[in-house]
Design brief:
This protein has 137 residues and is α+β, with helices and mostly antiparallel strands. The longest helix is centred in the middle third of the chain and has 17 residues.
Length: 137
């Protein structure tokens, strides 16, 4: 798989979507992982002026679902998230968070990913898991 081309394609698919609204960018991919970033600015704040947990989960679901997309033939299959869980362990007021989705299980019809979200100082912000279903078109 050409991971550089895959990153370009994922970032193009994000145009005019929630990923573009939140500023999510796919930056690195490998045989069992995908990495994306999101700037922590007022557009992703909750009213207390910190990173909104929902924005963090949107980042996790975006990178986890996109990671599954890399492993299927998009002409034959679609990927949908069917379950996500998140534990937020640290708040963040500014800077950038980076989400790395790592494959836990790749079945024919389900994929399970762990998404670790850290800041630029390597502090753990959130840890999430997503289960995706792979369905024929």
């Amino acid at each position: 798989m050409d991971f550089e081309s895959a990153l370009i394609q994922l970032n193009q698919l994000a145009k005019n979507t929630l990923m573009e609204t939140l500023g999510i960018k796919y930056i690195e991919a490998g045989p069992d992982y995908l990495v994306a970033t999101m700037a922590v600015t007022p557009k992703v704040y909750q009213p207390m002026g910190i990173l909104h947990g929902g924005a963090t989960v949107a980042l996790a679901e975006s990178v986890g679902s996109a990671a599954s997309f890399l492993f299927v033939n998009p002409n034959k299959y679609i990927v949908k998230g069917i379950e996500i869980s998140a534990n937020h362990v640290k708040s963040k007021k500014s800077g950038v968070v980076t989400a790395k989705a790592t494959l836990i299980h790749k079945g024919r019809s389900t994929h399970l990913w762990q998404i670790v979200i850290k800041d630029e100082e390597d502090n753990l912000i959130s840890i999430c898991k997503i289960t995706n279903i792979v369905l024929p078109k």
